[in-house]
Amino acid sequence: MTDTTPTEHQQDNESKGSADIFGHPRGLYILFLTELWERFSYYGMRALLILYLTKHFLFGDREGGLIVGSYAALVYAMPVIGGVIADRYLGFRKAVVFGAILLVCGHFGMAFEGPEASRITVDGEVIVQRDDVYTQIFYLSLALIIVGVGFLKANISSIVGQLYGESDPRRDAGFTIFYMGINLGAFVATLLCAYLGETYGWRYGFGLAGIGMLIGLVTFTGGGKYLKGLGEPPDKTVLQSSMMPGLTREHLIYIVGILSVVGVWQLIQNTGELGLVLVLFSGVIVAGVVYFSLFRCTPVERDRMLVMLTLIVLSVFFWALFEQAGSSLTLFTDRNIDMGDIFTAGMFQALNPFFIIILAPFFAWLWVRLSQKGLEPSTPAKFGLGILQVGLGFAVLVFGATQAGPDGKVAIIWLALMYLLHTTGELCLSPVGLSMVTRLSVARIGGMMMGVWFLSASLASYAGGMIAGLMAIEEGGGALSGLASLAIYTDVFGRLGLLAVVLGVLVLLVSPFLHRRMHLKD
Known about the structure:
globular
């Protein structure tokens, strides 16, 4: 058997030998740029999606929120499958290239917006008329993006993990730099795509997102030499084995991937059934991980896997609140934030990546500095801090709402402070979570566990869509006044904030116990 996956010793040597750009391997920056452009396309489209659904297709807030939540849920669920396929057969690099091609097709498909939907009254009932052809093009484009992300997202993060040995002190800093690249793309894309889409036409915003993904594909394929053999198929002979005349296993994987687009195309149109599928699928995955941890691992591996699974479950709550940015918070901004005449509602999603760009280098330095002094919070404590801060963010926004004007408009500063706290919470949890998965996972299922990490965001996204539905303001063409909509938003935001603060404190209290079960070398 030809095994091209580098050993840990080789990885350490590669890492040290190629760490000639700001103290990190050159390959990190190829992955940084690839992820930057992939996130440019994803967040550029995300900035417009809820507004596109409610203003172009005239979906109600509740239905639009569920579509956004279902789309995001599938985006984060598919990497579980993509990670397994890459682990066992395809290798991380081939999976990333195939996923990028699907993403390019999906994002350009979103540019075919078609005629706007209209409301008509039939027998006293308001009915929304939509062009069926362009509606199906929209759903098909979402399906292409979902499957494309499934092959790309977890696997590119896994390559980052392979750049560093398990005990390399630069690991968390490297993931934070990688995470900053994600948000640099998100920041620029959110401003440009949201402005173009809301000002000149949806097709221009979505089309620009497609161009960004195309640049990402070219970057990855052109810079592969700097990855120095990382991410190759685990066994090339198995991958190239013939399944039937003229059809190798690799070809079959690509065919099944394309056929899965058709299945997702139908699933995204049935948001209610999707929730049940996600719960059942997640239950099977969690049960499988628990079984593997209890019966196929050493005691140390078992403890590590179970702590990791506990923190992944806790992250579901964090992401359910954090992902309100793509739905209820954007609609809240559109209706209840005093934006002025320059900005559009979708552009305010850029506050999160903007703060990450500013703060990520500081956090990367801070963790290393605190570690040198023996004061760095443990991974479980960082999770607790993240959950606590997302709750405080909603609390600040609710307080700001008490200062609203007679038209129900809230000053921008309170929205900015909320995004700041959500961002500092994210920096405590998300890049650290990626690092945790690559550090604690048993090597033979590393790609799958990275997929499980994204599966937690999948459940959270669907839950976030349901939460957004609790704040539905416009249904059937009617609209509430600014003060009435403000009351609905602040009531739900206040409840969410209180729950998050309480849970964050509890996690901080039990973090020493969880940290001991991670069995990390000091």
